[in-house]
Amino acid sequence: DSARRALMLGVPPERFNWALPELCIGDSELAVVSPMVPGTFLNIAKTVALHRDDEKWALLYALLWRMHHGESGLLQVEADPLVARVRFLQKAVERDFLKMQLFVRFRESHGFKVAWYKPEHMIAEEMASFFIKKNPEQRWFLHTPQLTLRWNLKELELTQGLAQPPRLLIDNAE
Q1: pLDDT > 90: what percent of the chain?
Q2: With helix as H, strand as E and coil as C, how does the chain read?
Q3: Which end of the chain has fewer beta carbons closer than 10 Å to its terminal beta carbon, N or C?
């Protein structure tokens, strides 16, 4: 929302402070039509948003700014340094999705399946639907340092993560 408002107000990327967006855009009402954003950009941004890089928002806004200011085909210019950097972040998150799918192993414990995994990026909640489809009839816990996912056969519950694997997983591994 901050990026959309900044773009509509004409705040250039180098003047936008992601730590304090209200200083750049205030709370003024806008009579300007919301900018059109290509679906391709939205898909890329949704993935890049999960990256741990603190610069992700500034990079995405700079890309959006350039696209909105005359470079509508910018996403196809892979040699552009900004596009290359954003694509690099996107691919890192996509690799992390794949690694989590491949390497998470659930173990049986007291009628539940339990797993612990440390993803490189903030993908745990996005991965929930994959594990629900994979284990729809089994209650499970998937612990990560950022988040714990619990599937109780009806709904997904999200709670605080665990910095280390639960003791039962360590004991079972030995």
Answers
A1: 60
A2: CHHHHHHHHCCCHHHCCCCCHHHHHCCCCCCCCCCCCCHHHHHHHHHHCCCCCCCHHHHHHHHHHHHHCCCCCHHHCCCCHHHHHHHHHHHHHHHHHHHHHHHCCCEEECCEEEEECCCCCCCHHHHHHHHHHHCCCCCEEEECCCEEEEECCCCEEEEECCCCCCHHHHHHHC
A3: C
Angle between helices 124-134 and 81-103 (to 10 degrees): 40
> For all residues of the chain together, what is the average pLDDT?
85
pLDDT tens for each residue of 42-56: 999 999 999 999 999
Determine how many CB atoms are found less than 10 A away from the CB of residue 170.
Answer: 11
- Confidence (pLDDT) at 142: 95
Length in residues, the chain: 174
